[in-house]
Amino acid sequence: MASSTADLSGLVAHNEPSVQVSDDAAGFYTLGDKLVDPKAPTGPIKDRWTNRKFDNRLVNPANRRKLDIIIVGTGLAGGAAAATLGEAGYNVKSFFYQDSPRRAHSIAAQGGINAAKNYKEDGDSVYRLFYDTVKGGDYRARESNVYRLAEVSANIIDQCVAQGVPFAREYGGLLDNRSFGGVQVSRTFYARGQTGQQLLLGAYQALERQVAAGTVTPYSRHEMLDVIIVDGKARGIIARDMVTGEIETHLADVVVLATGGYGNVYYLSTNAMGSNVTAAWRAHRKGAYMANPCYTQIHPTCIPVTGAHQSKLTLMSESLRNDGRMWVPKKAEDCAKDPRDIPEEDRDYFLERIYPSFGNLVPRDIASRAAKYMCDEGRGVGPEVDETDTDGNPVKRRRGVYLDLTAAIARLGKAAIEEKYDNLLDMYERITGEDPYAGPMRIYPAVHYVMGGLWVGYDLQTNIDGLFCAGEANFSDHGANRLGASALMQGLSDGYFVLPNTIRDYLADGPFEKIAEDHPAVLEARAGVEAQIERFMSINGTRSVESFHKELGQIMWEYCGMERTKEGLTEAIAKIRALKAEFWTNVKVLGSADSLNQDLEKAGRVIDFIELGELMCIDALNRRESCGGHFRAESQTPEGEALRHDEEFAYVAAWEWGGDSLEGHNPVLHKEDLIYTAIEMKQRSYK
Amino acid sequence: MNLTLKIWRQANATAAGAMHTYTLDGVSSDMSFLEMLDLLNEQLLHQGEEPIAFDSDCREGICGMCSLMINGQAHGPEVTTTCQLHMRSFNDGDTITIEPWRADPFPVVKDLIVDRSAFDRIIANGGYISANTGSAPEANSVPAPRDKAQRAFNVATCIGCGACVAACPNGSASLFLGAKITHLGELPQGQPERYSRVATMIAQHDHEGFGGCTNIGECAAACPKEIPLDVISQLNKDLRDSIKQGY
Amino acid sequence: MATTELVKGVRATRSTIALKLAMAASGIIFILFVLLHMYGNLKAFAGHDAYNEYAEHLRTLGTPMLPRSGALWIIRAVLIVSLIVHVAAAVALWRRASRARSTKYQVKKNVASSLSSRTMRWGGLTILLFVIWHLLQFTIVKIDITDGSTGNEDPFNLLYNAFHGSAWWMTVIYLLAMIALGFHLHHGTFSSLQTLGMTNTATSRARARIAGWAVAIVIAGGFSLVPLFIAFGVITK
Ligand SMILES: Cc1cc2nc3c(=O)[nH]c(=O)nc-3n(C[C@H](O)[C@H](O)[C@H](O)COP(=O)(O)OP(=O)(O)OC[C@H]3O[C@@H](n4cnc5c(N)ncnc54)[C@H](O)[C@@H]3O)c2cc1C
Ligand code: HEM
Ligand code: HEM
Ligand code: SF4
Ligand code: F3S
Ligand code: FES
Questions:
Q1: Is residue C190 in contact with ligand 3, taking CB distance under 6 Å?
Q2: For residue C149, what pLDDT is reported?
Q3: What is the value of pTM for the model shown?
Q4: Contact assignment for C11 to B117 by CB distance below 8 Å
Q5: Which one of A163, B86, B198, C169 is most buried, counting C-beta atoms within 10 A?
Q6: Residue C116 sits in which domain range?
Q7: In the listed set A426, A448, A470, which residue is the last one of a domain according to the structure?
Q8: Cα C92 to Cα C14: distance, rounded to the nearest angstrom
Q9: Cα–Cα dist A539/A532, whole Å
Q10: How many domains is chain C built from?
Q11: How confident is the prediction for chain A on average, in pLDDT?
Q12: What is the pLDDT of residues B174-224, one digit of tens each?
């Protein structure tokens, strides 16, 4: 199968650059030059990384101490990078908004991490992991990057085990694997349902070791608010000490952003409360391109919203779909009933009905969309939630579908189910107050991960020299859809293995000329940050920051969520612009700027989300195709399945900040062609 | 439901703090405890009073950022984190007292927020296995007995929230410390540094000003991750061995 | 006391756990001593002569290798050292604990701890006061409370007079002291096992808790018998 089509020479292109014919976003953007990664490797795909590592220049150990590296973020990507660069002897400054580096949201990942170890001797290989990842990303990822990711994956496991990450083991004491996310091989390493936590603690401990060694200086409760760019090179950041409110200038030879995903643009998501786009967005406003911002992953099995008070959503592992059947009542009037009183013939097992062969195991995006349709039709279950319909009228809808384990409990016994899903079911009970053994659980899709992010080349450098970006914050490895257990892999690959190598090459030209704290570019960046804070504090309107965030989230979820249409997106852009205008005249922030002020922090994040949301809608509007997490209603097969248009859209959409839309400016679109040599593009199929 | 909330307010680390009383209507039993506080904050904002500062991030019980002493119990009446505590654990008309973690090594930053960086320094002073990136041997070259690996995992689930310190009458961080000692000490990779680790970590613990443990056991009862008291016994044992080894 | 630096030049022997180990070791020596002492006291049931013989035996133990009362002095020396260690460690831990939480909670609930574990310090202090009195009464000054005379050299009579008849309040004081001791041992026994690192599993911890109950009941109960039985006239001269 896959390997028979493998051509690893990297010489034969399987496809031509695509030519876009449709232009749905006309008027909302300006077309810029094509984008070519200047660091793109060539040659046989399997030798690219090896050769690059060799070609990357070295930095004399004695010089490393003199080189300052700023790393924003202490998740898997940032934490691993800081630890490794610290070990190498560079002078690292590590920034994070929480009180401890250990709290980065990587901590929340449950399922596992992939690696091509082939311990099960089930036919796995670097090539197969590479292939699965490109295919899983619906052929919208860059080949070279993904190959490197697969190649490095095995080293990650070695590294983590050496640090004491307590992965699950078999009786013989060797590492255990499971299969995850529908792949046919067992390549996922896990630590019960807390893999992310254990991996992050490994990186965190390595980081703290460097703190003790004096190579890494941690800056807790510091929020990065701008990058300093001098002569086209990133030379530092402006950060706010969130405790004292002081605006600080930090200068360096290179800046790394590893600030995680921006799923909170939807207000409700499985991300942490503080997850934000601010760091990436401020860099974007300084010239860094934002790539494929509309690619969002929506996970089908989350605990549903209970009411308007809801602040965040919680993921329940997908594995529940192995034993659970999803259904809604056939009749809308049954929706408020106790599900146990609804007879079998009045239940609609919608996935089994629509996808008879895959049934409840259809991929994440399909399951999510189907559940949404059921609720849109008025057949959702659970408490009623206030919503605004497409005409702007308030409506009450139930946002939930049943995930029913009762048949499995009857078949396998309660004890077996308990053993398999114990933690999950406990969590469900805690959050909903309902007994998951007594009746079906309620679930609903939720925003979970963003494939979009800052554009980076093969070296993980953005289009700004000296500004690198890693982890979920960059766009690089997952294309239009991320496979389960591969974000952790990417974060650690970027942090432990890629960045230390590529940054080395960049720094071989250093140490760069020292910048004075009163350099005009520094002062300008500082002044910009101070002016914005001053502006938030002075508006003194009537609406809370939170209410703007909620409203933005509703717009995004409604129009740029699981299903997107030209009309909807166009309307969303107008709504977001109006919201932005209102924000700048009517937001209310109390307290002072020179002390800990959570509303002030949030104001900065929400305005960035508003601007990002607008760009996401424009990106989604332009991409008139359905691929991965991006489903355009206009582009589907007659059976209602996602339809890609490779001839038009096999490119990375990298957006350049063009100025504030309220002042009539448009973003600029740069396209980077995706050319495949080792893999041939195929239409994804699950029928 | 309708609640009376007595909440500690303190402008900054050096300001004097005091309890303030608020009343809050319209609390739904489906709300999490922190969502209840969000609601209060929205109300305060509209009344022109500065919202109450409290820590939270993941709101799913894993990051360890949330804290709060609720009616005298760390993380409140259930065995879980404050962010996973729901209002259905309370009744209409209740009075709820909310205070920050109290321990001198956890100074108050503002209102209900405390500084727990002492925990990071305890980890920095030995709470790791030294394994430089790239130096690792093939993962399966060192098997780890399954039961030991499981014990290591069970205690590695500590989220560093500090509830153990908050609940301990002595203000001791022994449970947190013991959890890390046990995690790393159970694995083959953790052996080379086992005895120096415990010595440096406890030294940092003491230096930060945490109290000594007198085996009272409130910590384990407050721990949202149910880290058992075993780990303190293990900590003591490893320290004794470390003395024997001359550390 | 919060700091931002890492400690260098670490010595495990200077840690709070080392203090605790010292406390556990001295505490266990105390337990052994009180067990022995309690056994001796129970000789009172055998009557005047048997008891005095035992007291005399204590003094001749080890002779002629040791001088008269030599073994006793060795025991005393060990006890004195243990007491100094135990009390010094207790004071050090107490001070640390109160500095570790200088601002108290407005409301604090204890959910898992025993009363005994939370009253170790006050209980210990009570025992200390008791022991001071006790030594004055029986060893150093030998106060016969029936007539206030001192230097009564008949151990059994001294004991008998302490609890007999009109001296019921002395019995009460001793019983209260034994309650304090029982509390101290209930937690102390468990605690010393935990401190010595012998409670690494839930089962061993449960066993240590049972040991705590057993030691507390046996010792506090055993000691209480003699005063009670003298007071109620079961043991007679
Ligand atoms: C509930 C959940 C479950 C998941 N499960 C899996 C799974 O099983 N397998 C898998 O592979 N992936 C999973 N993922 C995805 C994966 O966990 C994340 O994509 C990945 O951990 C992101 O790591 P990161 O290092 O890029 O960012 P993060 O871990 O999010 O770290 C971001 C860091 O940046 C800092 N930061 C952010 N903004 C600023 C700022 N402005 N100033 C200063 N600092 C800032 C933060 O303090 C933090 O330290 C899951 C995600 C979620 C939400
Ligand atoms: C003389 C006055 C005494 C004082 C002030 C005192 C005080 C204390 C204190 C504060 C503790 C620590 C609490 C703990 O670790 O749980 C303790 C522990 C203990 N005490 Fe005492 N005590 C005294 C006498 C005694 C006596 C007479 C005995 C035995 C008969 C005894 C046996 C123990 C034991 C076994 C422990 C447990 C040690 C450990 O925790 O590891 N103590 N004591
Ligand atoms: C009801 C309880 C007790 C009674 C009736 C009792 C009785 C006595 C008597 C009669 C003596 C003198 C023995 C002699 O000199 O030969 C004595 C000595 C002593 N008792 Fe007790 N005792 C009791 C409890 C305790 C307890 C609880 C402790 C310690 C915690 C204790 C510690 C001592 C010590 C240290 C001595 C001195 C031994 C020596 O050095 O000579 N006693 N006791
Ligand atoms: S041991 Fe428990 S209570 Fe203490 S920090 Fe860890 S998780 Fe929190
Ligand atoms: S409550 Fe405190 S005294 Fe020890 S057993 Fe727990 S740390
Ligand atoms: S907010 Fe993360 S554990 Fe509570």
A1: no
A2: 82
A3: 0.95
A4: no
A5: B198
A6: 2-231
A7: A448
A8: 12
A9: 11
A10: 1
A11: 93
A12: 999 999 999 999 999 999 999 999 999 999 999 999 999 999 999 999 999
